[in-house]
Amino acid sequence: MAERPPSVRGPLRPLELAAAAVLGGVTVALAVLGWILPHASAIQALGAVPMGLVAQRYRPRAVLAATVAGCVVSFLVAGTGPAYSVVVCAIVGGLVGDVKRRGRGRWTVVAATAVVAPALAGVADLMLLVFAASRKLTLDQIRNLGRGVTGVAGRLPLLHGAADRANHLLDTAIRDWWATVAVVVVIGLAASVAAAWVIVGAVLDRLEWMVPEDRMEAPDDPRPIAPLPVSLRDVHVRYPQAASDALDGVSFALEGPDLVALVGANGSGKSTLARVLAGRPPTAGEVVRAGAAGLGKRGGTAVISQRPESQVLGVRVADDVVWGLPADAAVDVEQLLDLVGLGGMAARETTTLSGGELQRLAVAAALARRPKLLLSDESTAMIDEQGRKDLTSLLARLPRTAQMAVVHVTHRAEEAAAADRVVRLAGGRLLEGVGDSFPPFADPGPTGSTPARRGPLGDRRAGVLVVEDVSHTYADGTPWAQPALHGINLSVGEGDGLLIVGGNGSGKSTLAWVLAGLLEPTSGRCLLDGRPVTRQVGAVALAFQHARLQLQRPTVRSDIKAAAGIGSDAVPAALAEVGLDAEFADRRIDQLSGGEMRRVALAGLLARRPRVLILDEPLAGLDPSSRAGLLSVLGRLRDEGLSLIVISHDLEGMGEVCDRTALLAQGRLQLHDYVPEPVSGGGPTP
Amino acid sequence: MVLLRQIPGDTAIHRLWAGTKMLAVVTYGVVLSLVPSWPGIVIGAVMLLAVARIARVPRSALPRLPVWFWVVMAAGGLFTLVSGGKPEISVGSGHVGLGDLELYVRFVCLSVVLLGASAMVAWTTSLGDVAPAVARVGAPLRWLRLPVDEWAVTTALCIRSLPLLVDEMRTVMAARRLRPGPPGHRWSLNTLLDEGIDLMTAALTASIRRAGEMGEAITARGGTGQLTSQPAGPGWPDALAAAVVAVASGAAIGLASVA
């Protein structure tokens, strides 16, 4: 059972605000989608599910905030129609979710509906009374359409009587509109609540284990803000519901403006150590600090985290720099943006920035608070190589130029090179080697070396997947037209291994969608065995970067069965294909690690025996051991004759599985590095 | 389909305060709902065209509607023509009533004007200005001790996360398309329901994770505070715009009662 949130009063806490905004956004998206695609209007009813989730987990106050925000946003998108459905979803979802939060059963829902439904019917009647002219227009319209339909149907002798009766019924319903509307509202609401009770219940049961915790939240510290010097003595941290300590007796001190690199594999406790430095109280041990950590406060502690798009909160670049500052704080936004290399971009919308730019924006927002301590928690993990270089050199400059201590958490050995101090963690404990000598990680594969030559490649002249002069522009022909691909030519033969390298925004995801047949390009063709790939979706497998979105069933077994259309008996073989044991089939999807999710998604795709496998950023966010595991699986598949296309900003280790490299930049593709020989039908060779 | 994107530009309409534009649309929408008659619709359409001209909204910004939409519209018109109504005109040997058709056309025009008005706000307003405007417009509600600032923050975060959510939903649907249908392609209510629950769970898992990260990001910034670096408010152009909307509303109501 998920624990009920403690009953708190007062303003919404950060997690409640974020949940209301994001889940309210899901409702908006569903409402708008159902509104602009009338044949999908049933989708709107699903909007009650995210609202139900808000109501089940948080206070009614959060549901109210989600409703107001949802109304404003959906009104801006498509007018009053979707705004109205957001309100209905909020009422239905709110009612069901609140009953679930109180742990009550279906009779409570029935009782609540019995109260709410007549009240709503009254409100609807009242509104129609006020807007009498609109009511008359709409009702007349309905009557006329009805008369038209019955008029046509009534010409058939068989339907003559039925048409008369229908007309009579319609006239009565319209004459007594207030009763009709009341009945429709009551029945409609009751049906929606009943459906929501079933669907929300089923979804909530499956999401029950997933209760996000604000791991940054710390109790108030009344002392004046002074995050440094700080010293940790034998600190232990154990997260709620965890079986072991995340930090297991760590002693560590930080005094002046230094660059400290905190390195270790996934699960070594390095992020937890950063959170303790940011003010999270330890479960045991002692933290001695000059004053309060002052997270996010002026002169206190600032944090930059891993996921670029989640930590940037402003809609425009300049808004993000000041987001959350007290109303009286004045900041020279332009100067800060210059400092992080984003000069002149103040008015850009943050959705148009690349991952690396977003992370540097996060640094600017942190610097706006003039922190004494800056914590970078794996801030380089999800961005491309150039972005990583820019960000690490920016972080390395700060101790000198801005007089602050910087703690950079990373699993990359090379990023520790510039640090004044390197601290290694493993299994929640500090390792010796603090200081000058830093034992490097066993990293899979050489970086940037020549790609290794692999075994027999089959007949490469017969292109299995052929791309002919493909260009794609999003929103073509509108003021928002955004070109993504220009004149791409490509031929992938049987057993080929092609690495397409491109930075953020180079068009690589668009290319992946085109290759898999999920996107019809604006011009040009993409053919699989001579037929358009858009007509045979599924024949080219695509592993998305975000593996969780690809896994859609509760357990590994059911997901692989659904993904490949195979029976239970074939699942162990599918798992073996990606190097996982048969027992893995019983695991729940949501309890898998990032690396395991990628492998399970891969197992499902491979069990369908695709001709070509495309992988979008297969290594992003994986630690060295997960990387090595995935790479060895890919290498073996290649050897068995599968055509492989890897799309990545990361060259690291890919030489093992790919023998051709192509560079994608600003939507144009250049093939180079042919090993062992050029392929016919390819693009220009340098 | 492009949603919620500003048309780049710096015209008088772009420079109006976001609150003015939203209030103007809501006000005129209420007026049209009270008096859904031709004068109000025509005045609204004229204002829309004028605003589109000033804001230099290109014709290409209009969404291209699919064929079935026009088919449905034409079918609706035909049925109301069958239904008849006064006045009638004689066509050849028979009579055709146009009254109901007039009602139908009026109904459609009204919907177009209302939709166009809210699209016009989205086309000419930077999304970053919306939430601060909500905080300012809703300020009087603070007297009722309603948490207006909380709503503004939620609105800002909702606008920020919407493109990310839409992206995730597209990916979930695409991942579904890569998979085969149910065994034997037999779709029943149960498989549809199961499928819906599966897709919803996948999408919500991603959303919950994002909400968790966003919550931590808010905490890392020391809670909420400023929303924008350029606080905006109404100026004299806004007073002018408000006056235009007020006159138009008065005219719409006045002409409707005369007609």
Using brief descriptors, characterize the structure shown:
heterodimer; A: 686 residues; alpha/beta; six-stranded mixed β-sheet; 20 helices; 19 strands; globular; disordered N terminus; disordered C terminus; B: 259 residues; mainly alpha; 2 domains; two-stranded antiparallel ribbon; 2 strands; flat
Describe the structure.
- The complex is a heterodimer of chains A (686) and B (259).
- With 686 residues, chain A is of the alpha/beta class.
- Helices cover 41% and strands 17% of the residues of chain A.
- Chain A contains 20 helices and 19 strands.
- In chain A, helix 3 (48-57) packs parallel to helix 5 (80-101), helix 13 (333-339) packs across helix 14 (355-367) and helix 14 runs parallel beside helix 15.
- The longest helix of chain A has 31 residues, at 177-207.
- Chain B has two domains: 1-125 and 233-259, no CATH class; 128-228, no CATH class.
- Helix content of chain B is 67%, strand content 3%.
- Chain B is built from nine helices and two strands.
- Chain B is flat and about 75 Å long.
- The relative contact order of chain B is 0.16.
- At the A-B interface, helix 1, helix 3, helix 4, helix 7 and helix 9 of A face helix 2, helix 4, helix 5, helix 6 and helix 7 of B.
